[in-house]
Amino acid sequence: MFTSFSLAGIEMPEHLERLREDVRRFLRAEFAAGSYTRDPAGWDRYDAAFTRKIAAQGWIGMTWPRVYGGHERTSLERYVVTEELLAAGAPVRAHWLADRQFGPLLLAAGSEAQKRTYLPRIAAGECFVCVGMSESDSGSDLASIRTRATPTDGGWRISGRKVWTSYAHKAHLMNLFARTSPYDHDNRHAGVTQFIVDLDWPGITINPIINLAGDHDFNEVIFDDVLVPDDRVIGAVGSGWTQVSGELAHERAGSERWLNAYGVLVHLLDSAGPHPDRGALEQIGRLVTHLWTLHRMSFSLAGLLNQGVVPAVEAALVKDLGNQFDQDIPEAARRVVSAEARARLPAEDPFNAMLDRALLYAPSYPIRGGTREILRGIIARGLGLR
Ligand SMILES: Cc1cc2nc3c(=O)[nH]c(=O)nc-3n(C[C@H](O)[C@H](O)[C@H](O)COP(=O)(O)OP(=O)(O)OC[C@H]3O[C@@H](n4cnc5c(N)ncnc54)[C@H](O)[C@@H]3O)c2cc1C
Q: pLDDT tens digits, residue range 236-273?
């Protein structure tokens, strides 16, 4: 029996196509001016200066109220802007988490003072946030976290160790998930709380973790008796689980879940030329139909967000399909363009570098933001299958 599932098709209204053209014009001009290089994994490229340019266009905090520095536009408009930025391989990582999930979290659960303090700075591209959920033995099973917040005069003392914290070394704030009362086996989701932590506070150590591609994108973050004032608690003490669940739907809903290898697909199309052989035609045709389907599904998710729905099951489905798509592209590219043909490419041709990068990053896609097995469990439950 279906418990809740809805991904109705939505037509793209004309004013959104005009907005899409505005974003493309901006990106063309910035690219021509040399302010960014197209990176197929632009979502993972951190460039604070470029983020401020995006902010100046009004493209951060697009759906937030004006009183908090937002622009009161729709989730559909935000979708179009983010899709274009990602498809162009623009470096968007600096503001991405704050725009995608920390801002909506504060709007839903934050205090008035928190909204007024952080949202305008985020929308201006001046305040960057990382997410401190995972620990070494608590990734999928987030309720088992051991980072502990103990009440003290006027606040909390926090000790523990977070891992895989993307861009903690460049962010100003962490959205920290910590246990505020002892683990209760019968009520595992109780007693966890979210905090806003300044990453330059005493007692915080950030150590790099180098990924498979040799890049420094995530970190280990150690908290040693860090004093966090009471006004940094997000929502009510103990309500962290419900808040995080809402946040994860935002985290999984966007086109960043299936546009990571888009640049490789475009190059593949170009290199196949106007008369590809049958094998190439089949591989590329399959990828392009999947791309279009994911685009339609993701746009529907934006429609649900726009109605104030939290599409947890639908987002899990799109993320899982999107992760598979992002892994399929480099594999198809390897089959279509032979190793001999790749070796013959001139040094200045970016295809080899793009493909190498896509292959090295591909294993991370079905892990970050919720693993494949966990997502499929959520989907099965949502469809009433377990
Ligand atoms: C590139 C990248 C960036 C990340 N950035 C951040 C970040 O900024 N902040 C943050 O907090 N975290 C971040 N993470 C961590 C990420 O959220 C976790 O890696 C993820 O949730 C999985 O947790 P884990 O690594 O502990 O694996 P585990 O939970 O130990 O899972 C290991 C394997 O067991 C499977 N498994 C686990 N439980 C079950 C189950 N019940 N049923 C079936 N199979 C199961 C999983 O699917 C997986 O295959 C990042 C991870 C990556 C790869």
A: 999 999 999 888 888 888 899 999 999 999 989 988 88
For domain 14-127, the CATH architecture is Orthogonal Bundle (1.10)
Mutate to test the pocket of ligand 1, among 134, 138, 197, 217 (most ligand atoms within 8 A of CB): 134
Where in the chain are all domains bearing CATH 2.40.110.10?
131-239
Low pLDDT (below 50) residues in the chain: 1-2
Residue with CA at minimum distance from ligand 1 atom 13:
164
- In the chain, CATH 1.20.140.10 covers 254-382
> Is residue 373 in contact with ligand 1, taking CB distance under 6 Å?
yes
Kindly report the protein residue whose alpha carbon is nearest to atom 45 of ligand 1.
373
**Which atom of ligand 1 approaches the CA of 140 most closely?**
29
Nearest to 221 by CA among 191, 248, 200: 200
Ligand 1 pocket test, pick from 128, 140, 194, 210 with the greatest ligand atom count within 8 Å of Cβ, gives: 140
Write down the CATH superfamily of domain 131-239.
Butyryl-CoA Dehydrogenase, subunit A, domain 2 (2.40.110.10)
Would the pTM of this model clear 0.85, i.e. be above it? yes
The architecture that CATH gives domain 254-382 is Up-down Bundle (1.20)
**Count of beta carbons in the 10 Å neighbourhood of residue 214:** 7
Contacts 24+ apart (CB under 8 A), 359-363: 359/330, 359/334, 360/211, 360/212, 360/213, 361/41, 361/44, 361/211, 361/212, 361/213, 361/260, 362/261, 362/326, 362/327, 362/330, 363/212
Give me the pLDDT at residue 68, please: 98
pLDDT of residue 3: 53
Q: Is 364 in the pocket of ligand 1 (CB under 6 A)?
A: yes
Separation of 175 CA from ligand 1 center, angstroms? 18
